[in-house]
Amino acid sequence: MSGSDEGGASGRLPNTMTPEQCRAGRALIDWSVGDLAAKVGLGEAMVRDYEGRLSDPPSGQIEALRSALATAGVIFTDDGSAGVRLGRRGADEGTRLDSLTTENDR
């Protein structure tokens, strides 16, 4: 599905992240390499090497980095080219259409 976190249109697995997306995601939320590394309990060198394409860490470590960024408000996109954008942090998105009932539709 294009334009979403699914990533299916590009052939990438749904929960992957490129080094460029990692670096851009950090920039969006103003995190240093050290900030991101501390959030997931990994070394700064691992994050720096991954973003610089100097290493290819296990997928679990990449997913941990991605998850930390997503929790902080980074949204991963795939609308023709992999990217990131900043979601609204702490915003109430309301009630989803499929969750509406006669009680909460007011």
Give, in spatial order, the strands making up the sheet with the most strands.
1-2
Helix amount? 25-40%
Please report which band the strand proportion falls in: under 5%, 5-15%, 15-25%, 25-35%, 35-45% or over 45%: 5-15%
User: What is the makeup of the main sheet?
Assistant: 2 strands, antiparallel
Low-confidence segments, given as residue ranges, are: 1-12
Please work out how many helical segments DSSP would assign: 4
User: Separation of termini?
Assistant: 32 Å
Structural class: alpha+beta
Q: Give the overall shape.
A: elongated
Overall number of strands? 2
What is the N-to-C order of secondary-structure elements (H for helix, E for strand)?
Answer: HHHHEE
**For the CA atoms, what is the radius of gyration?**
16 Å
Can you give the mean pLDDT?
Answer: 79
Summary of the model, kept short:
The chain is of the alpha+beta class and 106 residues long. It contains 4 helices and 2 strands, in the order H-H-H-H-E-E.
Question: What can you tell me about this protein's structure?
Answer:
With 106 residues, the protein is of the alpha+beta class. Helices cover 37% and strands 9% of the residues. It contains 4 helices and 2 strands. The chain has a two-stranded antiparallel sheet. Helix 2 crosses helix 4. The longest helix is centred in the middle third of the chain and has 13 residues, at 59-71.
